[in-house]
Amino acid sequence: LSKGKRMNITTKKSLLATMVGLFAATGGLQQAYGQDGEEATAQERLDEIIVTATKREVNLQETALSITAVTGEELENLGVVALGEFVENIPGASLINQGPGKRQVVLRGVTTSSFEGGRATTGTYLNDFPLVGGSADMRLVDIDRVEVLKGPQGTLYGKSAMGGIVRYITNKPDTGNYSGGITLYASDIEEGGSSVGGHAYLNVPLSESLAARTVLYRYDNAGFIDNVGTDSKDVNTEETSGGRLALRWDVSDTASVDFEYHSQAMRSGGATGLGTQSISSTYSPTPHDGFNPFAPPNNLLAPDLSDPSYFNTTNGSNSFDVEALNLNVEMEFDPYTVNLMLSNKQILWGSESDSSPYVFVYDGITHFDKVEKGKLDGESIELRFVSKTGGFIDWIAGIWYESEEGGFKRKTIGSTPTDLLLFGFFPSIDGDVGEDSIDRWKIEETAIYGEVGLNLTEKTRLSLGYRRSDVLSDSELLKAAGTFDALVGLPSQVGIDEVVQEDVNTYKANLEHRFSDRVFVYATASSGYRVGGFNRGGLLANRSTYKSDTLWNYELGLKSSWLNDRLTANTSVYVLKWDDIQLAAFDNDTFVYGTVNVGSAQIEGVEAEVRYRATENLSLSINYAYLDAVLTEDYFGADDPTIITAKSGDRLPGSPKNSYSLFVDWRAPLSEEMTLSFNATYRYVGSRLNSLGAGLAPNESYDSVNVKAGIEHESGFQVSLFANNLLDERATNASALVGVITYTFVNQPRVFGLNVGYSF
Question: Which of 45, 120, 266, 439 could form a disulfide with 565 if both were Cys (CB 3.0 to 4.6 A apart)?
């Protein structure tokens, strides 16, 4: 299929249905031929998945909350090594994709833009330790499972858990056996370059009580966007390398120590100032008005997604470096288990780009080279007590402290052959320092939390949770000495400081009732919050502080297993009440972004997941989500509080109303030593708005198909072919408007590739 052409959706669905029917028929014949009775039934049951989202080990199907778990085996079968490659298959989840290190997960539509940065509404954890910033975009190598908790999780997880939590659970060192594996790949992007990479892991028992596990990976992924202004091809490259070292010491039968070091470095090209993997309206040095370098060229166009020659306005680069040290000491006592968890992490990020389009200069020879660098140091301490279960009452209690301290430098230097009047009035000379600022901030949370469970009967359970958080947000402007800084009203003096302190309470109540061992319902009311802060600069300085926004979730869920555990069907219905919404607002007079509290919204939704082990060889599943997110108050603009920007009843941006996914996984023996495997994924994502009120056109709906087929040998060797985005669909994940320059973040075109691996 040529780029930009869409296959009729009915044809696509018929094709998928034909594949499902074919493999179902084949699997059924093999089942009838080779098996019967209890043995066949046991082999056809869905695998049990144990999750720890509630701080206890519980069967996924017995967990009274809306949670999706994707096992490491499933990730490996799909060839997935990054969250962005599968998260939209999860009902209720969507992705803001601005390129490497700038990918944010949105759960249940809890966002106000499809491109804003700001403080996250979804928390990210590596095992039991919180991650921040670009570290959420870690690679999924040697992962036991990924747990996605939907709905606010404020009582157990604290701030930034309004929409939910994503937890990466790694495989732990094993003192029993040596094991390891390596996977290499090569792929080619349609109308783009070629990619290579791979990953490996090794588990080494060091003694009867001590083991080590290490992971290494490197991915060199090619680009597909061209820069017509500099005649550069495939500029949006991505290089990611990293690793993990874990040690586990079983001190005794009742005590253990887990240590983990994680490191990842990301480099990406083709920066537009907003991220990679974006196309934009373009300009070329000619034709333009030589007497007015600020006049948009005659060929200034909106991005054409059907044109295979994607283009970009500026070359540049982005970087994200992450390090984390985690320590977990666990001790078991008769009535409870104690965990002491310590974490230290550091993130370094930076970018280089040409900012000329931001100040509307299109002459092709004037440049404003911008360099941005940031650093974030974080640490957390948690002491948690978890009681044993089995009696009338059980409980969880803990003490929590987390600190994040960061700094940010920005500098822009102009290169102009002649003196210019920017914006028609502001003088700029060659070598002029436009921006020269340094900001620092620190956020601290100190909290106590607890949860009590009452087993009212053998089938009915009530649990109540509470968290009390003291949150301190301290920001400081050290310097703002550039000419652009003065233009937007930033002062040049050193040491402007502002502190925002809040006491936040979060709650949870959950009632569950089991009709049988395989069917139960639950009702939940829970709250979450996102920490407030301080703005400076421009007209937004008049609203310098913004407070925490809060959210309440009211949910009714059903979990069930059928056909001797061959089929599971789970669904949830929810209503979210969101107050004091933090909105990233742009001041058109001073070109400064800030945050304001703008009112309230209501989000209503339905999520459903069905998994079916049709035969020993064939597994099917379908996920569906409906989401209706609207303002319940008029929103008045940040520039002029008398003008309505968005009305009550307008949709919130960033998430589709309808989305669903279909999965087929089929495997059958070719011989006593070899197995043939095939899987296919079909995904549909509905249209999404970009921002509140008038502005950019909505992101159109899209669908995609990924397929993979391979052969596995019992010795551990495997080889597979894969095709991602088989139908070569265009998906716009986010857009932003900066002046008259439109940036549109797009998905990767069709990719064909080869995987080769070995494990033991």
Answer: 45
